[in-house]
Amino acid sequence: MSTPILEVNDLKKHFPIRAGFFGGTTGYVYAVDGVSFSIAKGETLSLVGESGCGKSTVGKAILRLFDITAGQVVLDGQRIDDMPYGTLRPMRRRMQVVFQDPFSSLNPRMRVRDLLAEPIRNFGLAKDSADLERRVGDLMDRVRLPRDAVNRWPHEFSGGQRQRICIARALAAEPDLIICDEAVSALDVSVKAQIVNLLQDLQKELGLAMLFISHDLAIVEHMTHRVAVMYLGKIVEVAPKRQLFAAPKHPYTEALLSAVPVPEPGAARERIILKGDVPSPIKPPKGCRFHTRCPYAFDRCRQDEPQLRQTEDGHFAACHLHDLPAADNPLAGARGAAVIAHH
After folding, report:
1. Is the pLDDT of residue 219 over 80?
2. For the whole model, what pTM was predicted?
3. Which processes are annotated in GO (biological process) (predicted)?
4. CA distances, 142 to each of 54, 133, 165, 196 (Å)
């Protein structure tokens, strides 16, 4: 089997809490607390979960936008989490990011031509000025914007067009991996669909790998290969898309899927309402972090932390329910298949 383009091993990011301006550390926010996954070349892995679960922190940690607390980030077989910044620079070209808000991502004082030319110049990808212009024009073609729009300023574009420019700027460095951090959540529904289709076409055309961070399961279902579900700093389930949507193996995933709008009007579906609020990442619950809201929790869940392990081929879940006899496990049957009936 070929080497994955990205491997994340037991990644942790704990933010210190300080008392006052000069005070010492009084505790930590356990934003990401032991996350592991891999992405194959040309694959899309979606990282999903409620707001505040730590999924965006995972993306920023991979990009080395801050130093991690523990763990490893391996890009194409080479560890980058402890790499000196001087050595890291060439590796940065291979992983690019598209953020949620395209307007704040673009320098308002730069024309589109300069925004797209900047990464090409930074990484020395153009032979001369003519090659630079050709590359800028090709990028506009790829994201389906007119070439003459390179003379305009970011404020002269709509939100969807600005996100296309952000995608073009990410492509300018010729990356192997693009991290999309809620890249379509700020867009209108019709524009969102266009951008998702564009990303899929670019992936097929260029062989890109993608980490697609989102809370929108309807979008995730449309464009991903595999899904990783996060809750309170940990991954609780990883599976190929069809397996996860047809039969979730974790109660949290089951509840998330029950909230997805039904594609067929009148289709029967049981909505699961979780009780209580998400616990604080400053003091996560002992045992399974989901046990305070889980409708199936039993004594072991309150004491022992479940490990992410395989429940069937390619499907991993961190849940003690799978140690029970099948007759006593509410997730062992085909109940999850009723969640999304159109597969």
Report:
1. yes
2. 0.89
3. peptide transport; transmembrane transport
4. 32, 14, 10, 14
